[in-house]
């Protein structure tokens, strides 16, 4: 006999993935301490690499450190926002090289 149940399957959104981790919140530039089995289920080193990849997909870099918190493996992470490259500017007026003193003396009265 079939039994009607609700809430057993994850909702399906066409064309949109359900995120496993809260990257938009964690990649805000602040330092975050994430503890294994609380914030993530994989090994701390694996999660550290996933954080690096998530930042790279957004065009940023990530500082990470694998540590322990109350005896549990943990990862500290902080996104580093990209800096705009400095523009190379050309001088508006190109001055000729200075002439030697003997050439200037030829035109003096």
What would you note in describing this structure?
Helices cover 22% and strands 20% of the residues. With 109 residues, it is α+β, with helices and mostly antiparallel strands. It has a domain at 23-80. The protein has a three-stranded antiparallel β-sheet, covered by helices on one side. The relative contact order is 0.15. The mean pLDDT is 79.
Helix count equals: 3
Beta content comes to 15-25%
Category from helices, strands and their pairing:
alpha+beta
| DSSP, total strands | 3
End-to-end Cα distance: 118 Å
Low-pLDDT sequence parts: none
Strand order of the largest sheet: 1-3-2
The largest pleated sheet is described as:
3 strands, antiparallel
Give the % helix: 10-25%
Q: How large, in whole angstroms, is the Cα Rg?
A: 29 Å
What is the mean pLDDT? 79
Give the ordered list of helices and strands. Answer: HEHEEH
Name the shape in a single word: elongated
Write the layout of secondary structure elements.
Elements: H1 23-26, E1 32-35, H2 44-57, E2 61-69, E3 72-80, H3 101-106
Antiparallel strand pairs: 1-3, 2-3
Which short descriptors sum up this protein?
single chain, 109 residues, alpha+beta, 3-stranded antiparallel beta sheet, 3 helices
Short synopsis of the structure:
The chain is α+β, with helices and mostly antiparallel strands. 22% of the residues lie in helices and 20% in strands. It has a domain at 23-80.
């Amino acid at each position: 006999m079939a039994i009607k149940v609700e809430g057993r399957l994850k909702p399906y959104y066409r064309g949109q993935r359900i995120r496993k981790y809260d990257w938009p919140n964690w990649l805000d530039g602040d330092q975050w301490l994430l503890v294994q089995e609380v914030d993530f289920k994989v090994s701390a080193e694996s999660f550290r690499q996933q954080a690096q990849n998530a930042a790279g997909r957004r065009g940023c870099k990530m500082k990470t450190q694998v540590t322990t918190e109350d005896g549990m493996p943990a990862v500290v992470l902080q996104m580093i926002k990209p800096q705009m490259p400095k523009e190379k500017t050309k001088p508006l007026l190109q001055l000729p090289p200075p002439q030697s003193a003997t050439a200037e003396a030829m035109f003096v009265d």
